[in-house]
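hi!! sorry for the late reply, been swamped w classes. u asked for the two structures so here they r. pasted raw, havent cleaned anything up. first the sequence of the first protein and right below it the tokens
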Amino acid sequence: MLARDAPRVVTLVGGDEQAGTSSAVINLAAALARQGKDVLVIDEQCDAKSLIEAVGADRVRTLADVVAGKATIDEISAQFDERVRVIASPLGSLPAGRASETLASLNCGVDVVLIDAKVDDEGALSPIAMQANDVVIVMRANAQSITGAYACVKRLHFAHAIHQFRVLINGVTSASDAYSVYQNLTAVGSRYLAVTFSPAGAVSLDVRLARAALLSRTVVEAFPAAPATLDFRRIAVDLLHWPWRQPNQAPARGTTNRVASAPLASTV
């Protein structure tokens, strides 16, 4: 009865290269930490501009070593702040047939696992990213990003039969813009793919995001009163109350794709 509940696992994947996924992941992690939650960030990007490089985590030993029993998460993760740790997991390093063991390895005293996901050449997620409770498409509020986000959803839908996605929109200038982008993507996805979308939230266009990155800090930490900080903190609160969904589970038959303005409007 005293055993800790399994963490919520959330995969965030960019609709295009300019979506700002890594920024969203680390700032959301910081916002969750301010809610008193312990967060593990899994970085699948593992390049010169990735979170692993920014925080100085071990790039040689990865999550695959934890799954194989060669190391513990504590041994190879980098402490980003008091409640946030970052671990490397390069795409292709995890065994495809050991998803249950991988999930079990994440039950290491954390409340939320955020995956900065990368898709392979066929548009597929890694074994652990595919098993997340929620798959969040990160995009920006422009036509190019809408096109990229739809293409990403299409690939993921056909690769994994995922029917339900959440959408996080970066760089919005107003609630109406966020709603318009969300409505556009929802209408196209519902018509042509029969997938459902739910809003994860929206983040204001805020120059302090870039300033915080130059300082190697999150906007949540560096600028507590910034509009983007308030957005990430609202998204973090909402995330903790998202309906619990089994990994890669399709919505119940007969579920309709509703567009609600209030959740998005409240985050900008």
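now the second protein. again sequence first, tokens right under
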Amino acid sequence: MSYELIRVERIGPVCRIYLNRPEVRNAQDRSLLRELDGALREAEADDDVRVVVLGAVGDHFSAGHDLKSARVERPNPTVEQRWNYEEEHFLEYCLRLHDLKKPTIAQVQGACIAGGYMVANMCDLIVCADNAFFSDPVAHSMGTASLEVLIHPWVMGMRKAKELIFTGARLPAAEALQIGMVNRVVPVAELEQATLELANTIAAAPPYGLRFTKRSLNRTWDAQGFRAAISAHFDLHQLSHVTEEFQEHLKRGLDSTIKRAKGLA
């Protein structure tokens, strides 16, 4: 496939997929998400690819969902239209990334917010630059039930997950490393090289051994209720769109939401 909003590179056994909308901090619109899903499927099907790196062009990993394009594409979605869209582009795409048969590494710099946070945390490992920060301001600024995929307590623990969501505050790279949400933090200038070195080390392992081990590790979460919890939250997230709180948010307008989210410490 040819892509416009992502960049795909093959470096030996490593497939590097970059979000490529730096002019809008790699905000994720429908076209970008579809291209990303397509590139991940291609990498999974390519026997020569052993590891997939998911990164981004520019200063930031991703500012999350592109709310402005969503408002243009779906100005007044019905409950059914919103449900179908978010189920495909957010829930199903994220779970497919989580279930990818090959190891995945998120390479994160700068802002990793909301939908960006969700995508990065579906990867097996995260390497981030020392200027990276993570944030989920959605409940605080929009009045919806956090993100579509509530991965938070699975990657950082319940207490910290509640704090992150309830306050909408930023989680700096150093703290994300301390609580075990990310694997490594390196200087910005060394991010690409450090991530590639880790990917090549993993790629040297027997591929089916990694594939089977990843499946077992993912099933450990499943045995603890991962998929049931993710699905249950997605339903509540959809319900939160029809509350009076969310309707008041819509009346205030998109600029008010963005301003409020940026104002969170």
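hope this helps!! also noticed smth abt the second:
The longest strand covers residues 6-11.
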